[in-house]
């Protein structure tokens, strides 16, 4: 296989870091295919409880690797959209005039085009009545009110005294709309990135583009479902230039009037959506050859279910995937920019028999809250404290030679040339047959934290593939992330004074761990 100059350079960099790049390992064909088929068949069995699954031909899934590529792709697909644009994000940056103008141009060009925007009602209106996500997007209503639908999700936990007395930004700790779904006609991008300048320039995330009408329809339906449990935005003459209301056509009663009934209504429609009959299962050698990739959408909607009847699919899926790592030859990489791993996930990963595993987290200098004003400025130290606890746990189980913690750092965030790290996900492969490229990855909004599984709305996808080109792309993505990492050990915490964490931060991390 011929290697580009960039690939050769990256390979040399990874070798210098002590990381083997799977794309450069020998791959005996028969052993490789046997290992791949066995692993994939086992995973398909473990994931058979999931109703939603979609099959993809070669070339129908693309992987983007940089923020500017993500931004350029967004603008290109917005301008080419014919029927629908549907966007779900935590927020849209208040300076994203170019992005909104791009949507306006698409609406102007195509009289059939409809635009659907869903953001979090707390984060998206944080700066109101000053310019915020909502004031920016609501400008589209001035000329295209009949073709633009803007929705604000507000967690039912914000109903009552909590919503009344908690100050802005603090109340966001109650729960958020955290999904990142960017759809255009028959294509959809799943990512962990929001829509603001840093995510388009120097904040590293992940981005997968899916070219499939059934898959796009699924995420459009999901978008519409959560929108039907959210407030609608309309223009107003008040200081903030917009107001919100609860449409009669919504799928549930307004939570401020009857929170219990809202949860009952919401859980009913969500259960119906998550448990509806799937596409027919593709089986047989010829069909599996034509459709070598299967993708399982998974979601976490815990705030919208009764506590003891949570039908969310993400957490059980991730735990099943981890339990499938059953041989020393199986390798995995886990990453989360905000390192507060859900306890069962941490326990499961440490228990795996893998000889080669990596955990990537943000260096304090790549944490978006580095040198932030106020309480949030302590968050990098909180995650540093959790990293040290993780390493102690790994050592306690005798896995320090097999599970390596790596910090991602590319300059210093908020300084010239500095980047922040926001990627999250899981990759699993098997070195049997000499090929350790991933056969599976998880992509989406979740940080795999206690917060993600109790407070926020999350949407992700599990990609399981025999497609050699897609596996190459997944490995290239992983190599790009590993290229900017450095191994961190307990000795580093003992010798580096910058890794000392105050007692106050340790106590606060313990008390507020569920909300990190």
From TrEMBL:
Residue ranges of every copy of the PLD phosphodiesterase domain listed in the record: 173-199
InterPro entries: PGS1 (IPR016270), PLD-like_dom (IPR025202), PLipase_D/transphosphatidylase (IPR001736)
Superkingdom to which the source organism belongs: Eukaryota
Cellular localisation: Mitochondrion
Family per record: Belongs to the CDP-alcohol phosphatidyltransferase class-II family.
Role summary: Functions in the biosynthesis of the anionic phospholipids phosphatidylglycerol and cardiolipin.
Record's protein name: CDP-diacylglycerol--glycerol-3-phosphate 3-phosphatidyltransferase
Encoding gene per record: TDEL0B05910
